[in-house]
Amino acid sequence: LRFAAFLTEGDDRVLSASSVREMRTPSSPAETGDSGYGLGLQVVGGEERVLFGHSGSLPGFVAGLWVSEEDDVAAVVLANVTSGLPAAMVAAELLGIVAEAEPRIPAPWRPLPEVDEDLLALTGVWHWGTHPVTLRLTEDRGLQLTPLAGKGRGAAFTYCPDGTWTGRNGYYAGETLRVVRKDDGSVDHLDLGSFVFTREPYEAGAAVPGGVDAEGWRGLGG
């Protein structure tokens, strides 16, 4: 489990937290049922959570290690067998049982010690079409996208030196979030892997795919 903690939090004496985060970031998003790889780590998209870790075997030995960053839970299964025991599957099921029986208690909210005013201006409600989402500012200039109500697509984003963000988890894992500005420098919309988010539903004048009908919303003609 110490190795699982290292893969989650890193250790500056070996690899920083940002480096181990890169290790568990696949080149393409982990969809439900999909299995991919980061840098030496396997990433599996399940029904309820995304797991990272690895399985392995030698004659007479099998092992499986999975970590759920969102649940802050890890599971390790070791067995002295050559075949017959799906160690990775058992570890994943064990992790799921613990996560459901003992759900993670959210960390208490604390204000950020410093806030970039330009980033703060990006927070609040945005719309993908008519669907509202909320964008929050997190530590290290990161962003958190969540549905305003009910279920929907969300993700945490890591800030990149070029001024964009990369999705760490969820539907937008591996996708690039960038701010698109108008000629006067003001924010026009957010581009998230070609998904366009505007401040108002189908905001007039914004870069809405397909454009907005000049006559506005109306019922179908008879």
UniProtKB/TrEMBL annotation:
Pfam families: Beta-lactamase, DUF7586. Residues 115-199 form the DUF7586 domain. Residues 7-95 form the Beta-lactamase-related domain. It comes from the Bacteria. This is Beta-lactamase family protein. The lineage of its organism: Bacteria, Bacillati, Actinomycetota, Actinomycetes, Kitasatosporales.
